[in-house]
Amino acid sequence: MKVIKYKASPTVAKYIKQNGFVSLIVGPIGSGKTLGSIIKWQKLIHEQLPSADGIRYTRTVVVRNTYAELKDTTIKSFAGWFGDTLKFNWGNLTASYQHGDINAEILFRSLDKPDDMKKLLSLEITYAYLNELRELPREALDNVTSRLGRYPAMSSGVGATKPQAWADSNACDNEHWMYKKFFENRPDNHHVFIQPAAILEDGEVNPLAENLDNLPYEYYRGFIKGKPQDWTDVMIRCKFIPLSHGKPVYPEYNDRFHCVEHNKLAPPDKLLPLVIGGDNGRTSAILIGQVDKFGRLVVFDELISDDIGSAEFGTIVANHLLANYDGFKHEIYLDPAANSRTQLDDRTQVMVWRNAGLSVRTASTNKPSVVIEAVKKKLNTIIQGFPSLVVSDKCTHIRKALAGSYQYKRVNVSGERYAEAPDKNSYSHVADALAYLVDGIGGTRELVSSSKFKEAFDNGYSAKANDWSVF
Question: Which of 333, 332, 326 is nearest to 270 (CA)?
Fold first, then answer.
């Protein structure tokens, strides 16, 4: 057998040595995470105590999100390290490693279909390795950890010595389940290791980056050229921010320019009314803003609720305003569809919210081409050296929406083509709330005067013009 020397980088070495119940390593592309995970498996199968017959038995499930990724990436990584000593059975996607007193079995599993997840619950395993954890649903980790230590059986004379799961991943959105579990609410038996960024903010290669000796010269600086900023920040600098896979609806938005620290914003003026945009859906949202004395729209608060009905969300909004903005006058602008009666009763959302004590109107239009352009104009306009649309840094959902999470989905055809309408995802409602807020302060009326949009309003998309204005 060919002997290959392996020297782990500092973070990977700590990850390999960790024997906690669950371990996760996060790092840049090319940082040696996958090989480190394979070496961790190799270490553990040698540390398993022998059964009564003197053999160290283990069974490990290796999980990847799709069959193609599993076969083309994960399995090839195992085969590349172990060569012919790892015997594959391609019929059932298993492999066996037998060397000396080691008898180790690997079950390679993908999660392409809903039923694939259920199959994880039937496993009797010693260990679990989840490759590219951010691409997997949370249930994958929950299911495999519930099956650890079931092999070898106690009747063999020893049982599983160190049952555990480990995973590797690139960084992810800080709203992702992986981030919430491992960084916000991490159990005390879960451990995280983060590798240094590969590229520094000035574009230079980080001298502390790991695995550089095993990469081609200028590897990182070569392939990041032309990549979007968010892609580089997530995949190379290990930042936990949204990564857009589609075409941003608002490429004009620059978080460093349009976003201001909340404690540096002037507090809302009680002499001026609050302007609020709202939208109900699977993820209901309102944005609370005010036009300041310079004519800038300042969005300083947001309220987001998941899976809540219109009436209940209206009560939440009313209580939020009473608790935080008592004494302020306000005007709420909703989707024009809020005037439509539901199939359950004769009440409209506008009626329900007014009954909750809210001052509610509907936006003049919900036509995407109009309301989106109105927001774009605000993003592109400068007033006395400052953007005419300013967002508080506490409004994390609308910032993510503007930064690219609200996007045109890529069409599954050859070439770079995108859908004509924005994708309805978890950020579309807060983005619509902003559009209705901008409409409420007259943003769409400013566009009506231009010939580019006059036709759109004349062709049946205009509702009764709003007669209230903060100006």
Answer: 326
Please provide the distance, in angstroms rounded to a whole number, between the alpha carbons at the two ends of the chain: 80
Among 154, 124, 119, 156, which Cα is nearest to 139's? 119
Res. 463 pLDDT band, cuts 50 70 90: very low
Burial of 99 (0-12, 13-18, 19+ CB in 10 A): middle
Per-residue model confidence (pLDDT) at position 449:
62
Domains and CATH numbers, the chain: 10-221 (3.40.50.300), 255-461 (3.30.420.280)
Task: Report angle CA 365, 360, 448 to the nearest 5 degrees.
Answer: 25
Instruction: Give the Cα separation of 79 and 95 in Å (integer).
Output: 10
Q: Count of residues for the chain?
A: 471
The DSSP symbol for 72 reads: I
State the Cα–Cα distance between residues 67 and 64, nearest whole angstrom. Answer: 7
User: Beta partners for 107?
Assistant: 61, 94
23/201 Cα distance (integer angstroms): 28
**399-426 residue pLDDT tens:** 989 988 899 987 766 666 888 889 888 8
How far lies 361's CA from each of 6, 217, 438, in Å?
67, 61, 13
pLDDT computed for residue 114 by the predictor: 79
Type of residue at 232: T
Q: Evaluate whether 324 touches 300 at the Cβ level (below 8 Å).
A: no
Backbone torsion region of residue 226, taken as left when φ is above 0, otherwise alpha when ψ lies between -120 and 50, otherwise beta: left
Whole-angstrom distance, CA of residue 434 vs CA of residue 278: 8
